[in-house]
Amino acid sequence: MADEENSNNEVGGIAADRLRSLIERIERLEEEKAAIGSDIRDVYAEAKSAGFDVKIMRAIIKLRKMNAADRDEQEYLLDVYKKALDI
Length: 87
Prior knowledge:
The protein is mainly α. It is elongated. The protein is built from 4 helices and 2 strands, in the order H-E-E-H-H-H. It has a two-stranded antiparallel ribbon.
């Protein structure tokens, strides 16, 4: 009986119950991620309808995610490149 129980939980040395649990958790999280993505798109659509420039908002969000040193370096390089191209 112990061999049958062990064989139900392990297949080819893999803990089937644990694997199934992990896969189901990932699937639920993927569903939540899709729902959150939809919510974010809705907020951008609301912002656009209110007259905000969504492209600029995305750029601001990207900058806010960066630490100050990386942001400063990026802004410096952007200025250097703009000057090099007379922009």
